[in-house]
Design goal:
The complex is a heterodimer of chains A (302) and B (648). Chain A is mostly helical. Chain A contains 11 helices and 1 strand. Chain A starts with a helix and ends with a helix. Chain B has helices at 2-15, 29-53, 67-90, 100-119, 123-141, 148-179, 194-212, 221-227, 230-240, 242-254, 260-282, 287-314, 318-353, 364-367, 369-382, 389-403, 419-442, 459-477, 483-493, 504-507, 510-538, 561-564, 566-571, 573-576, 604-620, 630-647, and strands spanning 58-59, 64-65, 540-543, 578-581, 596-599. Classes of the chains: A mainly alpha (302), B mainly alpha (648).
């Protein structure tokens, strides 16, 4: 019960911290002082206090975008195990619900973007749904690998670090899946080298251009939901990369927090040392991600 | 007793169009009478079907009612009747005096014939009902036969459906020669040689694949669905094509000792159908053609489930059978529900705007809020997203596919595991396609004057949508309710294998799915309340869309359905084969000009039509033989007979 509460508290409180750490890392690389690590929290509080502007062309769909995006991220966060701890909700087949919750969020954020009638937001919406067409199979190939080597159909047991087939047989596939999931994570969370939310040119954005017309609390929900998505996919990747489990539950929580912060630093480093790819290369990389995890499956089928 | 309720339902549906023939062409009493008969017939039929679930199977010389039949009877009795109610407003007799009576006559006949095919227990009755169904559907497709495009779709449908009938004749003739009887029953093991059984299977795949619209036999489907009145499209897509699935499921349960490649073939055909169907849908501008291609996609998903069950039967693995077949059957229901919902709401749009071209629509959510909501429900359901019903059936097939990796048992068959990423790809593409369709039709601003006079449609049209949307929510949030019916059907499909107490509720996390759907709605509700309260307390203003500072945005600048699908179209241009008609710009200041683009059908336009042209050219060189001279024809017959006599 206590573990479950800790899980929920971390899920609710920690996501914006990752954004702060990524920002700080990038600032240090660029030789700047950078914004404080807690800046994203201040931004969210400020946005929730602000007034809103709604376009006259919009309907309830525009308001449903941020709401559904946040609700689906919250529910997905209850299905993923953090560190060595079991997820609060775990059942056979929960990874499919996990993937489809994000898809539901995407349906509504993309529709909300089209609701404004703006060409820019249409562009972002089209790109978002297009790229996820390639990211989804990569994710499911990854699930196949994890299911096969853990002989289970639930995220908690898939990621609990036990390998009935033997860790040696699992290692090559795990490496491939981790690489594939890292690409998916960067694309789905609009990070450099695939997308740059900080660029000045809306024409080149993917995710950020979909939310141009959202303001105030609705925009705050979007930012919060997006950081939660980064947190959840990051926690997933962390368990694939480092499926360790200690004996003491509290040290496991500590390890998890340190691991997540380290992952944020890695993302910050990747963002600092790489330039953005041209948009036409995004599908190429996603196909590569699919193939990596497909090879992971094939390696296990020997 | 239960079977007589079903027979009464069939009879009432069959006769429902007849009284209308005796009323004048602009009199609506016939329409009301026909609806009343259909409602009574459906109540009786559904009651009989539900009763059959809790009584021993009926298996006579003429009629068979078991779990599998019930699974198909329920949508057959539900959806056409809702369509009839919808047609009260959509196709009013007073507004369609020319073809309203014809439409209702064949609408009732096709419904009755569909139910007749499912309950038929001998080949003669099966084929008779099958032909009535096929021909009535032809007259439904050609309702507006004054239009050339409608006649062409009808013609294509007629050719394909008779290819299907031809294969059925062959199938049943072989069965008769093997068993010596006309009754439809399981073929005992060892009676026929394996080659013959394989031939029967292939014939069944072609015959029923044509009817179901499985690729590559789908060529008739998009045209036929797009050209008919929307409630007929809903009937065809929601119920009629499923009769092909019924045939496939039925015949595969009767053929003995299926080799593994049968299931493998079905999985491959289903995967091709699923992926190519949704990719073709992405390229469409016509709202109803788009929905029609999605039927091909969903048939693909269903056939993948059937394939999974068949592999399970070959390898004696009960859980794959249960998950695959229950997933397929539930998807048959679900697709009937949400596709009918989508066709009804698309029909409402067409009813008030008089265009099917999505690039001419836009912004309808503000003038037709209820229709827009129902379309959104259908779109979320068809993408297989929680908390609606599409998710449940896809989840069953997913879990079945994951289980083929050998999780929790010793048997494994890796080929079927690739169903999971394929379904993921199909789901993501379907999502792209429905965001596109919903956005283009209902969101943003109006793109043309077609939308000017749009208004919300009456309750005769939104009522059926409400029922269907309610059922989508019900199955999505309480999937445990449908488990008993599916268990029963699976037991009747593989009676030897499914002994014991293994039930769907044990194998699949139906309770968790329901709980997940419920908590999703609660969470979204809470988040919605928070947002509304924050917006109220923070104050809000309304203004035009920001559009990155551009001062004079126009509705023509919006992303259209075509531009939305453009990147995906590029990735899949080998399927869509897009054709662009670009304007020829010569001067510095070109005048008004036109740009057009359309996509080809990968089978019909890219393969069959060229092949047909080559064949026609070759065969026309023999035309001199057919000169119209009757003496010459008689001579041919005499020569041919002499040759035959000499040869044998």
């Amino acid at each position: 019960m206590i573990q479950c509460l800790v899980h929920i508290v971390l899920l609710l409180a920690m996501p914006p911290l990752l954004l702060g750490v990524i920002g700080k890392t990038k600032a240090l690389f660029a030789g700047r002082v950078g914004a404080p690590i807690l800046q994203p929290y201040h931004d969210l509080v400020k946005l929730f206090k602000k007034g809103s502007v709604f376009s006259t062309t919009t309907t309830w769909v525009f308001r449903a975008g941020p709401v559904v995006g946040l609700a689906t991220a919250l529910l997905a966060g209850m299905l993923i195990p953090f560190g060595g701890h079991a997820a609060p909700v775990a059942f056979s087949g929960d990874m499919i619900l996990f993937a489809y919750l994000f898809a539901l969020g995407r349906f509504f954020t993309a529709s909300a973007a089209l609701d404004t009638g703006s060409a820019f937001e249409g562009m972002g919406s089209a790109r978002e749904v297009t790229f996820s067409c390639l990211a989804e199979p990569a994710l499911f190939f990854g699930f196949l690998v994890l299911a096969k080597m853990s002989a289970s159909l639930s995220l908690t047991t898939m990621l609990d670090g036990t390998f009935p087939l033997g860790a040696g047989a699992a290692a090559p596939s795990l490496v491939l899946v981790a690489a594939s999931l890292f690409i998916v994570l960067l694309v789905e969370n609009s990070r450099i080298p695939f997308d740059d939310p900080n660029t000045h040119l809306e024409l080149t954005m993917i995710h950020e251009v979909m939310v141009l017309d959202h303001s105030g609390p609705a925009f705050g929900m979007i930012l919060y939901g997006a950081s939660m998505k980064l947190f959840i996919l990051g926690a997933f990747l962390l368990r694939v990369v480092a499926p360790f489990k200690g004996s003491d539950p509290w040290s496991d929580w500590g390890l998890f927090i340190v691991g997540m912060l380290a992952m944020a630093v890695v993302i910050g480093v990747v963002e600092s040392v790489m330039a953005r790819f041209r948009m036409v290369f995004v599908p190429t990389f996603l196909v590569a991600a699919c193939l990596l995890s497909a090879f992971g499956v094939i390696l296990l089928l020997r | 007793m239960n079977e007589w309720l079903i027979v009464l339902g069939i009879a009432l549906h069959a006769a429902s169009g007849v009284p209308g023939l005796f009323y004048p062409a602009d009199d609506e009493r016939g329409q009301r009478l026909s609806l009343a008969m259909a409602v009574v017939g459906s109540v009786s039929g559904i009651a009989g079907a539900l009763w059959s679930l809790w009584s021993p199977p009926v298996s006579g010389a003429m009629m068979r009612v078991d779990g599998l039949v019930v699974c198909f009877l329920l949508p057959i009795f539900l959806i056409p009747t809702l369509g009839g109610l919808y047609g009260m407003e959509y196709w009013r007799q007073s507004q369609h005096p020319r073809n309203g009576r014809k439409l209702r006559l064949f609408y009732g006949l096709v419904t009755a014939a569909l139910a007749g095919v499912t309950v038929a227990a001998n080949t003669i009755l099966f084929l008779a009902a099958w032909e009535i169904m096929a021909l009535s559907a032809f007259f439904l497709v050609t309702t507006e036969d004054e239009d050339r495009a409608v006649r062409e779709s009808g013609w294509l449908y007629l050719v394909t459906t008779h290819i299907s009938t031809l294969c059925l004749f062959a199938l049943f003739a072989i069965l008769r020669s093997v068993t010596g009887s006309y009754s439809l029953e399981p073929l005992p093991s060892g009676v026929a040689s394996p080659e013959l059984v394989n031939a029967l299977f292939v014939l069944a795949v072609i015959a029923f694949g044509c009817k179901a619209g499985l690729m590559p036999f789908h060529i008739w489907l998009p045209g036929a669905h797009a050209m008919t009145p929307s409630h007929v499209s809903a009937l065809m897509s929601g119920v009629l094509i499923k009769i092909g699935i019924y045939g496939l499921i039925r015949i595969t349960s009767w053929l003995p000792d299926p080799p593994v490649w049968w299931g493998g073939l079905l999985i491959c055909l289903g995967a091709v159908s699923g992926v190519l169907g949704v990719v073709m849908a992405l390229g469409q501008h016509d709202l109803k053609r788009l929905l029609a291609y999605h039927s091909i996609e969903n048939i693909g998903i269903i056939v993948m489930g059937v394939g999974l069950a068949l592999v399970g039967r070959s390898l004696n693995c009960m859980e794959w059978v249960l998950l695959g077949l229950a997933g397929a059957l539930l998807h048959v229901w679900n697709h009937g529900l949400f596709k009918a919902l989508l066709f009804f709401s698309a029909g409402a749009v067409i009813h008030v705007t008089h265009t099917r071209d999505m690039d001419h629509l836009g912004g309808l959510a503000r003038v037709m809020p209820r229709t827009a909501f129902f379309f959104a429900v259908g779109a979320v359901a068809i993408c297989g997203l929680p908390p609606l019903n599409g998710f449940v059936s896809e989840l069953l097939i997913y879990i079945g596919a994951f289980r083929t990796l050998g999780i929790g048992q010793d048997v494994s068959w890796f080929g079927a595991a690739f169903v999971a990423p394929t379904l993921a790809l199909i789901g993501a593409l379907a999502l792209a396609c429905f965001v596109k369709a919903y956005g283009a039709v209902f969101l943003g601003a109006a793109r043309s004057r077609h939308v000017e006079h749009a208004h919300e449609v009456s309750q005769a049209m939104t009522g059926p949508m409400l029922v269907l949307a309610g059922l989508c929510f019900l199955i999505g949030m309480a999937p445990i309710l449908v488990a008993p019916a599916l268990d029963r059907a699976v037991q009747d499909w593989a009676p030897g294998l499914m002994s014991g107490t293994r039930s769907l509720a044990v194998v699949a996390p139906l309770g968790w799915v329901g709980l997940g759907a419920l908590s999703l709605i609660v969470l979204a509700g809470l988040a919605g309340v928070v947002l509304i309260r924050r917006v109220r307390s923070g104050g809000h203003t309304s203004t035009g869309t920001w559009d990155c500072g551009y001062a004079a945005p126009s509705e023509r600048m919006q992303y259209t359905a075509s531009s939305f699908a453009q990147i995906l179209g590029g990735l899949f241009s080998w399927v869509q084969q897009p054709r662009m008609h670009r304007p020829d710009i010569k001067t510095v200041f070109p005048g008004r000009t036109v740009f057009q683009s359309h996509v080809l059908d990968i089978v019909l336009d890219a393969v069959l039509k060229p092949a047909y042209r080559v064949g026609a050219k070759f065969l026309s060189s023999f035309r001199f033989l057919q000169a119209g001279n009757i003496h010459a024809y008689l001579l041919y017959i005499v020569v041919f007979l002499i040759v035959l006599l000499l040869w044998k």
